[in-house]
Amino acid sequence: MSHLRAPRVYRRVVEETRVLLERLERIEELDRSGVGRGALLVELRALLQEAETWSHVEGGDAGASAVGKLRAALARDMIAG
Questions:
Q1: What does each C-alpha distance from 23 to 1, 17, 79 come to in angstroms?
Q2: Which of 17, 20, 36, 60 has its CA 20 to 30 Å from the CA of residue 6?
Q3: Three-state SS string across the chain, please?
Q4: Which residues form the domain of 11?
Q5: Which tens digits make up the pLDDT trace of 4-63?
Q6: What is the pTM of this model?
Q7: For the chain, what is the domain count?
Q8: Are 55 and 63 a contacting pair, CB within 8 Å?
Q9: Which residues contact 13 (CB under 8 A, 6 or more apart)?
Q10: C-beta atoms surrounding 16 within 10 Å
């Protein structure tokens, strides 16, 4: 049975990674277009939620560390803003 589980887990990791990459592309496009800071923060908050989901699916310390760094960066930006 475990051989059937691996492809599903892999597909979920790939799907969550695709979602993150699409969100990052959207953020880059918005940034290049000069959209306001508020719109970027909305996208960055969504990125944080998606990164948390990815981290849980992917597992490992690297994913958790990346999410923590993103969370800290957003907190600094929201406090400074």
A1: 34, 10, 23
A2: 20
A3: CHHHHHHHHHHHHHHHHHHHHHHHHHHHHHHHHCCCHHHHHHHHHHHHHHHHHHHHHHCCHHHHHHHHHHHHHHHHHHHHC
A4: 2-80
A5: 566 877 788 888 888 989 999 999 999 999 999 899 889 988 998 888 888 887 777 877
A6: 0.70
A7: 1
A8: yes
A9: 54, 57, 58
A10: 19
